[in-house]
Amino acid sequence: MAGGVLCGAQNRQGVQWISAGEGSMKGHAGVKVAVVQAAPVLFDREATIEKACRLAREAAAQGARVILLPESFVPAYPRGLSFGAVVGSRTNEGRRLFQLYWDNAVEVPSVATQALAAAAQEANAYLAIGVTEREAQYSHGTLYCTLLYFGPDGRLLGKHRKLKPTASERLIWGEGDGSTLTVIDTEFGRLGGLICWENYMPLARMAMYAKGVEIYLAPTADARDAWQATLRHIACEGRCFVLGCNQFVTRSMYPSDLPCAEDLALQPEVMCRGGSAIVSPLGDVLAGPLWDQEGMLFAELDLGEIARARFDLDVSGHYARPDVFRLEVNEEPMPPVASR
């Protein structure tokens, strides 16, 4: 496959399009995918949903049938904010910030998910998007970092809740359980993935490989150069296509009246520079990484490459040693209250 090519032209919103070349292998099924690197309208659920739907339509207009948006795109990944918490105390202002975040989070299902489902149907594409999810069934309070999957028929096909929020993320997000280790069967292969530093959990990756994931989604907030090595490693290890997706966010995008806004004073103007990329099952970069701007990456995936790559490495098949190593995964829902 050819590498990513900067197209140069911009659409009416000034977003630069970036695409991988057409697949060189003929006679194999293929699918065009899109990774959307953009910023939400921070802390504004309705405006961000509207933007996400517009971006999905624009990606579909370029022929994409699988579209990925970043981690916690709705309503924001709250980078740089302390929520007024230090060991042993929390501030009233931090609690107000959490309430604002909670107020703009996404319940599943809701009017917000209906709008995203309609956008997927209009795009005739599989749409995966990161949201901060507000639990509506049990606690009516806890937030989760969640990846939602919508089908081209407009249905919500599944979700994945981040198993382990990283560091200060644990102030705002609860932990998911094994019941949402979701992989979706599509006509293009099996679609699934993990969120950000979940991808550093070897056993979580192995659980996904055992589910036969072929198009692996890795939405993230990690903009380090080192993250590129992670994306390529997962592709080589899992012999799957990897779609890495991050936001491009600047300090000036934050609302000026945000509680705890003083936390942002020491932050650089560019708070997240992106780094989205698309990688092949043999670790070749097909598109990206994209830095320091909003934009889209496209690649035409030759799905026959998955079988060719697994000829010599299949970590949940012929390259496994179940007589020596075995992973047990608990996929039962773990609600805090179970009625009998």
Could you describe the 3D structure shown?
- The protein has a single domain (4-309), classed as Carbon-nitrogen hydrolase (Nitrilase/N-carbamoyl-D-aminoacid amidohydrolase, 4-Layer Sandwich).
- Residues 1-27 have low confidence and may be disordered.
- The strands form three sheets. Strands 1-2-17-3-4-7-8-9 form an eight-stranded mixed beta sheet. Strands 10, 11, 12, 13, 14, 15 and 16 form a seven-stranded mixed beta sheet that branches. It has a two-stranded antiparallel ribbon with strand order 5-6.
- It has helices at 45-61, 92-103, 111-123, 202-210, 226-238, 304-309; strands spanning 4-10, 16-20, 30-37, 66-68, 85-86, 89-90, 126-134, 143-150, 156-161, 183-186, 189-193, 215-219, 241-245, 248-250, 270-279, 285-291, 295-302.
- The chain has 340 residues and is of the alpha/beta class.
- The longest helix is centred in the first third of the chain and has 17 residues, at 45-61.
- Helix 1 packs parallel to helix 3 (111-123).
